[in-house]
Design a protein that fits this description.
The protein is α/β, with parallel strands linked by helices and 263 residues long. It contains 10 helices and 7 strands. Helix content is 48%, strand content 13%.
């Protein structure tokens, strides 16, 4: 694959106000990309927009505050983008959340919203943006999955299952797009410096959190190398291989023992 040039392209990033999404915005702005930034809180988006426009004077940034867990939110978002006369060259489906808890102890509304964001919004935005990419035969999508995509996650049961879906979905699209110049990749990070762990009610006192800048930098390198998926960090990559060498039952026991103390 030829070296990617993001200059003057338009990149749509969900969950852009913090963590991995914010870092994608920062690094791509510095590569000359124009940005459409999505998150729930307008004040956070406005602050990021002001920061990036000070750093990068040769790009434009649009911010749209929306809650992608709501019905029709993805369709309304794309309609708003189209109404501005814009088209999306690259889509980064980063928005998502999880919970550390026993499955039955969380209310179903939380799980419903989790699935709406982690799966439904991701699939619908992909479905809405991909046809134009295919018509132009350029651009692509990065779907943020998780190191948890590779095995069941006791005490994060719904989150882990949703991220397994993201990995499988992304790989399937790769198969459909092999004869095009449109590239889909799944990014599978481990625990990362962001608001995610706080919102997930996780005990992070003994966790090693990767800097978001390192995760995004490695993701962009992997995307340029035309990888189908990438796991950020050597230890995370080794952990992703566990299901290949031990039984599924043993894998579940290992993960349960890892995460039970963190709930």
């Amino acid at each position: 694959m030829n070296k990617l040039n993001f200059k003057n392209t338009t990149v749509l990033i969900t969950g852009a106000s913090s963590g991995i999404g914010k870092e994608f915005a920062t690094q791509l702005a510095n590569k000359g990309a124009n940005l459409i930034l999505i998150a729930r809180t307008q004040s956070d988006l406005t602050k990021l927009e002001e920061e990036l426009e000070c750093q990068c004077t040769d790009i434009w940034i649009k911010t749209i505050a929306t809650d992608l867990t709501r019905p029709n939110s993805s369709r309304n978002l794309v309609a708003q983008i189209n109404g501005l006369g814009l088209s999306v060259d690259y889509l980064i489906n980063n928005a998502g959340f999880g919970r550390f808890c026993e499955f039955s102890e969380e209310c179903f509304e939380i799980y419903h919203n989790m699935l709406m964001l982690n799966i439904n919004a991701l699939v619908e935005l992909t479905h809405l943006c991909l046809p134009r990419m295919r018509a132009k035969n350029t651009g692509g999508i990065i779907n943020v999955a998780s190191i948890g995509s590779f095995q069941p996650l006791p005490y994060q049961a719904v989150y882990g299952a949703s991220k397994a879906f993201v990995l499988s979905f992304s790989e399937a699209l790769t198969g459909e797009l092999m004869d095009t110049n449109v590239h889909v990749m799944a990014l599978c990070p481990g625990t990362t410096e962001s608001r995610f762990m706080e919102k997930a009610n996780a005990d992070t006192s003994k966790m090693r959190l990767a800097p978001a800048c390192d995760v995004v930098n490695s993701a962009l390198v992997a995307y340029e190398a035309n990888r189908m998926y990438t796991v950020s960090g050597t230890m995370n990559y080794l952990m992703s291989l566990i299901p290949r060498f031990v039984s599924r039952k043993r894998t579940v026991k290992i993960v349960a023992n890892m995460f039970k103390p963190k709930t």
